[in-house]
């Protein structure tokens, strides 16, 4: 299936989602968010799909949300924010609800939601040249994609604070050492990663689904609650003078 700035294929049990907006460093537009959401929801009900893989084309995994606003009319902007946060909330919900494995292959730098969504992935591979950065405070924003819950539990509150509060740019080795990433690879070895992933298609489906329920199912309702609360706060931040001034300074 081809969508704008997304390459999505289903092949031999693997749904491959490739972010392909290289001119914007794979920044996620509303169309891309909705495309990924629909792809995951569809795959969840497709018996031919065993798991999903998300990666990026080119140098970047993702530079986060595409900040492309055409109008700053107050009423129009507020409506835009409500729609945008609803789209992102649905995107995050798709990851929370997904009953199959979702695997991230981080092929390069990740920023913003390109980082936070990793906490909802079941396995994360990353290139040695990948970096991970959350510039929320500088932009007057706050955590999203359940990172306020997942990150302290993955890496501890202090390391999570370095990312979420200070905007620290974490390198691949640090991400591996703190548990955000499970395996590092050289760019020349990325094909071997996909060969390794094909082995999963030989595993019993029932074993995979049961294991996913045991590992992820117990806190699903809590994650939805976190997602809801985060996106309410994100909407407020997006409407704040701090964020609008930060955005205007970049336009």
Automatic annotation (TrEMBL):
<dbReference type="InterPro" id="IPR029045">
    <property type="entry name" value="ClpP/crotonase-like_dom_sf"/>
</dbReference>
<dbReference type="GO" id="GO:0004165">
    <property type="term" value="F:delta(3)-delta(2)-enoyl-CoA isomerase activity"/>
</dbReference>
<dbReference type="Pfam" id="PF00378">
    <property type="entry name" value="ECH_1"/>
</dbReference>
<keyword id="KW-0576">Peroxisome</keyword>
<dbReference type="InterPro" id="IPR001753">
    <property type="entry name" value="Enoyl-CoA_hydra/iso"/>
</dbReference>
<protein>
    <recommendedName>
        <fullName>Enoyl-CoA delta isomerase 2, mitochondrial</fullName>
    </recommendedName>
</protein>
<keyword id="KW-0413">Isomerase</keyword>
<dbReference type="InterPro" id="IPR051053">
    <property type="entry name" value="ECH/Chromodomain_protein"/>
</dbReference>
<dbReference type="InterPro" id="IPR014748">
    <property type="entry name" value="Enoyl-CoA_hydra_C"/>
</dbReference>
<dbReference type="GO" id="GO:0005777">
    <property type="term" value="C:peroxisome"/>
</dbReference>
